[in-house]
# Entry
Amino acid sequence: MTAAPPERSVSAVPVPRTACTAPAGPVAEVAGSEIRRLQTGYLADRSEAVAVLARLRRAAGKDVAAVPDLWGILDTGPLYEVPGIRHDAAEAAVYTAATLYALHQQSRRTGMHRTGGDELGAAVRRLMAPDEIDEPVLKRFRQAGSAPALPLLAVRLRGLVLLLRGEDIGLDYAQLAEQLYVWQQPGGRDGVRRSWGRSFHAHRPHRPAGEPSSASAQTDPKDAS
# Structure
């Protein structure tokens, strides 16, 4: 899937093989650079970016290595200049994150990739009303966390991304790409799951001023808008 020789370089720092709680390393750098480029073009209604996102979107939830239409449309060349990483896994992580972003961005006029924004767990928690747990959403989240391999994880993340798009909730896709890379490493899934779980439980949904919590309310809490 490698594109033309790159005009930039990335840090030659091996990617950690345990929990990934923040964007770091060449996978996040490459994914973030490519997704920001496409997002800028899409929001400016540039035909090339619109067309690339359409191709990426059609592959969301699929094994990206088995979709020839994707080959070469992202510049993953810098990954091959970095020693100490698994290039096949790194490239799969970048492409998978980009396909999910393309699905997320569809028909949205604000950027759904938010650098430094929510991790997956926090974004999923934002789908729920304050002081409530939406069991169907939580079930989808748990199913994603239990995926044994990247292709099935991509399928399950696709469903969550559609929910996030419906509520205009953004996601840090550079961080997600890094975590998708870690997921493919020995023992990596456990670390990523812990990170997602922590961000889910740590996030506190916004409650409008004056709105009581469920513990003190006399009526059922209203659905989140």
